[in-house]
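Annex B. Sample input.
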Amino acid sequence: MQPPNLKNDCFALPPGVHWTPVDEALDLLRQRLQPVVTSESLPVGLAAGRVLAEGVTARRSNPPTANSAVDGYGFAHAALGKGVQILPLISARAAAGQAFDGEVPLGSAIRILTGARLPIGVDTVVLEEDVTLQDVRIAFHDGLKKGANTRAAGEDVKKGGVILDAGHRLQPQDIALLAAVGVGQVSVFRHLRVGVLSTGDEIVPPGGDASDTQIYDANRPMLLAVLARWGLEAVDLGHVGDDRARLKAALDQAAERTDAILTSGGASAGDEDHMSAILNTQGTLHSWRIAMKPGRPLALGMWNGVPVFGLPGNPVAAFVCTLIFARPALGVLAGRIWQPPVGYLLPAAFSKSKKEGRREYLRARLDADGRVEVYHSEGSGRIAGLGWADGLVELADDARDINPDDAVRYYPYGAFDL
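Annex B, continued. Sample output.
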């Protein structure tokens, strides 16, 4: 089955909006986007990193039966009294995979190993380290509670219960849960294919010769690496110079090969911003002027039914816009639920006077005392700061004077799945 296509006006801003606050832009994306990929059934062992297309219910409880949590001796708690307990052992043993199918008489005990099903007549287990064994009797002190050192049937997961919802990206720990409750196949979305295209005459491939007027293409390899970390199928669309006919041909080919397209450069309204121009005349274009630093220009549009995210050309701005906007948007297109990053309030190790009217993101990292320090420059071309940092500090839209030890919101790169 093929999911519905996105509407050509899905990126349209409300009339009269000139500068869009970050939160409003994110709300618009969340409301208007939907999965654009089909689903398939995969064995659980091959499904890590994929997004569930359907919720999953447990085929059986975990644990399926009451069992022992330790190596020791099992008995009925009702047989215990005060003081030192002395119980005779029956001539049998219960082990994982080798259950004892008989009944343990009241007042007797059985040798039992970790994971073994509790036999009839057993509801409590004493650790073997707490027991003195002599002949066919055990002795231990009183004080054990009923059910000690045992696991109840279904105490982790009950049969028929929903264990994972549609839109959840499967992690290795989820694979363990699915396997434990007997799920062998899951319905998952196919990989979202995301193309990355660089534009501009000034761009040359990394490692080649470059004149003083040219720059190496840092954005395309960076974005391809980010997409791969997100579990998406990253498609290298190469580089196109400032030639509208070639750019149109590249977009036509990209729309046939991918489900979404990321471009960098040419997203503004200058004479050489050909990406915006061609989207505006031959596709659909909505120029979002985001009230944020870095990364104000963001061109969002459709080309032959495929969404295009036109990122800023400066690498830092492209990186930040990708984390803030492209990550949750591409996640939804890939079938995930909308996934905002989780940040933490931590003490600042810097001073700054911030003006009102825009959201700011600073390259940041934690110091040895758990405070947040920021990179010495806020320039969008300072690529070294991305590697120096281990996350971003978000400064809200209002004006604020920040002094050392003031609380600031810090997002580690891990909050963006990096």
